[in-house]
Design a protein that fits this description.
The protein has 109 residues and is of the alpha+beta class.
Length: 109
């Protein structure tokens, strides 16, 4: 967040502000790792659904179509490992790759 003077502020993108039940807020501004967003949400009072990171297929079943980069964060694994798992699932007709711009979106087959 940047102060522009005169009581005005500008948020860098992407940004998220998590509001707690007690009225406090916890923000994450600019490009930050997943853990920063998770920590802010927990500080605001969120309850984790699970401590275990999702498998790629579970993440797509829960959230719908996902980009490879999103799945890296959700699964907590490096890109080459995630891509190998995704292509293996595609080979078994469980996922369908959709080429977009310079990347791939993944959805259930």
């Amino acid at each position: 967040m940047r102060d522009l003077g005169g009581g005005r502020e500008r948020y860098s993108l992407p940004s998220a502000v998590f509001g707690g039940a007690g009225g406090g807020s916890h923000g994450v501004f600019g490009w930050q790792p997943y853990d920063a967003y998770r920590a802010a949400a927990l500080a605001a009072g969120a309850e984790p659904a699970s401590e275990r990171r999702a498998e790629p297929l579970e993440a797509i079943e829960r959230f719908g179509r996902c980009a490879t980069r999103e799945l890296e964060e959700l699964c907590g694994r490096p890109r080459p490992v995630v891509e190998a798992e995704l292509w293996s699932l595609a080979r078994d007709w469980r996922l369908r790759p959709i080429g977009v711009l310079t990347g791939v979106l993944w959805e259930l087959a």
